[in-house]
Amino acid sequence: MAGVLTLTACSGGGTSPTGSGSGTGDGNAVRGGTVQVLQSTDFSYLDPARGWDGGVNALYRLLYRQLVTKAPNDAEDPNAMVPDLAESLGEVSDDGLTWTYRLKDGITFDTGAPITAQDVKFGISRSWDPEIGIGSPYMKQLIDAPDDYEGPYRSGDLPTIETPDDRTIVFHLKAPFPEFDAALSQPSGTPFPVGTGAGDEFINDVVSSGPYDLAEFTPGSLIQLTRNPHWDAGTDPVRKAYPDAWRFTIGVEGATIDERLIAGQGTDINAIAGSVQPATIARLQTPQLRERILKAPSTCLTYMGLNTTKAPLDDVRVRQAVNYAVDKGSVLNATGGSQFTTISHSILPHTVSGHTDYNPYPSEDDAGDVAEAKRLLAEAGLPDGFTMTVDVRARDVEQRKGEAIQQALGRAGITVELNVIDAATYYETIGTPSQQHDAAITGWCPDWASSASTFLPPLFDGRDITDKGNQNLAQLDDDAVNAEIDRIGAMTDLTEANAAWGELDKTIMTLAPIVPLNVDNRIYLPGTNVAGAVAPSGDLDYGIIGLKDPAKG
C-alpha cells in the first residue's frame, strides 16, 4: 500500500516535532512569493486516480480537494478528518451501509464551473477503470459496485453512488466501515468534470479543484504551479495557500539538495525538501543550522518480514529466536544513528493510534539475547542453527541494515545470505510470493494514522495474500488473527477499536511473523525564509507553508 516507506499522517497523541526554527503553524508567513521544492525523484502521476504515494500526495494537497480531508498540521488534532468540499463529515445510516454528504455552495473547478455531486461521483468512479484506477484501492474495496463494473468510460453509470441532486451524494457500501470519511480523503476521492480524463488525458495535465493550478510541467525536471483564481478560501478550512506560486525542481541528487539547503544562497532561502541524508546530520550541529532543524517522527515502520511458509521459519520458535537474536542497536547505527532513527519493539509506531508500549523480545541495550535465541533453536531441533536468505534493496543504507542483521544472527548460529535486488523492482519482487525468499527488509506506512486499520490488516490478514502485489510478506494466515481483524474492523467506537488494535499487535508478535526494527525520524532543514513548516508526524503540509518575506530570494 505504501510499502515504499513514504509519508503519511500521525496520531493525535503523537510526539511533537522538535527544532522549530522555521516557526510553527502560520508562523509569520505572509501572502506572496514562490516556494521552491527540491527533490530527487519525479512524481508518480498527476492523475490522483493513478498516483498514491507520499511524495505525490503532498503535491495533490495543493491541486485537489475531496469531500473530506485530513486536518492541517497546525491543528489541535492534525490527524482528525475534517470536511473539505462537503458541509460536514458523512451522515451514516443505522446499519452502517449508507453514507450521505452534501456539498458546500460556491466550490468550483479551475475553469470556474461549479463542482457538482455528479462530478464527485464521476471522479470517484474512475477508480474502477483497469488502466486508470491503479492508485488508492479503498473506493473499490468499500463501495458496493457490480462485480463487472470497470469505470465510467467502459461501464457507464455506477448505481451504488447516488446523486439525488447537484449537491447531495450517497454511497452504498458492501459492509459497514466506520472510517469511510478517512477513505474518502484519499486521492481517489477527487472530483473531475463528468466526461473528462479518459485514456492519458490527465497524465500531463489536470483539472484543479484546489488553490493552485498547473502552469508548466516538464516530466523529470520541473513543475510550476500558479494560483487558481476560482478557488474560494472561504470554502476551504485546511489550505492557507500563502505563496503565489510553487516551483518543484526534480532530479537533484540528495547530497546536492542538502548542500544547497545548508548554504542557503539565492532562492534556496525559500526552499524545502524531503528529509536530509543520514550522512548530513553530523554537519547540522552549528547553532545557526540547529535552529533551522525540524525533527519529526514518521508513522512508517521498518521491519524484516519472516516467510512463515518456508521451513524452518514455519516453526514459531525459530521466528521467535530470530527476534531475540537481532541486534536492533546495530541496525539503528546502520540506518543513521539515534538522531535519525528510533528502535521499534512493536508493530505499530508510537505515532499511530493504537500503539502500545511493550517489548516481547527484550535484551540489554537492544543488542539481542543470543542465549535465548540458541535455547529456542535447540528446542526447535536446530542446535547448530540454519541458513536463511534475506532480500534487501540495492541501496547502501539497506545493505548496511542487512549486514547488521547478518552479523547479529550469526552469533546464534544462523547463517544469513543477502540477496540484493534492484530498488526499482524490489517491492514487485518481494510482493510476489513465488519469488520470495526466507525474509525481506521492508517497511510500511499507514494511509491514515488515526487508527491501525490500514496497518495491521494489510500486513497480516491471510485472506488477502495474493500472487502479485502481496503485502502480507510473512504470508501469515492465522484464523484467530483474521477473525479479530474482522471484529475490530466492525467497531463503531474508534477509541475502543484502537485499544483492540493495540492488543492485536501483541497477539501477532507472539507469532513472530516479523522483526520490528525501527521508525525513521524525518530531519528537515527548511530555508531561512520559510514559515509554516511543521510536521507532527513526519509529513510537511504544503497547504500551510509560506514565506516570511516574499520579496527575498
SSE arrangement:
Blueprint: E1 34-39, H1 54-63, E2 68-70, E3 81-83, E4 91-92, E5 98-102, H2 117-125, H3 138-142, H4 152-155, E6 161-165, E7 168-172, H5 180-184, E8 212-218, E9 222-227, E10 245-250, H6 254-263, E11 271-273, H7 287-290, E12 294-306, H8 316-325, H9 328-335, E13 341-343, H10 370-379, E14 386-393, H11 396-410, E15 414-421, H12 426-430, E16 439-444, H13 456-460, H14 479-489, H15 494-511, E17 514-524, E18 530-531, E19 546-547
Radius of gyration, taken over Cα atoms and rounded to an integer in Å: 24 Å
**What general outline do the C-alpha atoms trace?**
globular
What share of residues are in beta strands? Answer: 15-25%
SSE class? alpha+beta
Number of helical stretches of at least 4 residues: 15
User: Could you state the CATH homologous superfamily of the largest domain?
Assistant: Periplasmic binding protein-like II
Instruction: Give the proportion of residues in helices.
Output: 10-25%
Average pLDDT, to the nearest integer? 91
Q: How many separate structural domains?
A: 2
CATH hierarchy, class of the largest domain:
Alpha Beta
| Low-confidence sequence ranges | 1-26
User: How far do the termini sit from each other?
Assistant: 39 Å
Tally of strands:
19
Strand order of the largest sheet: 13-17-12-16-14-15
Organism: Streptomyces xiamenensis
InterPro entries: Peptide/Ni-bd, SBP_5, SBP_5_dom
Biased composition (Gly residues): 12-26
Domain Solute-binding protein family: 81-464
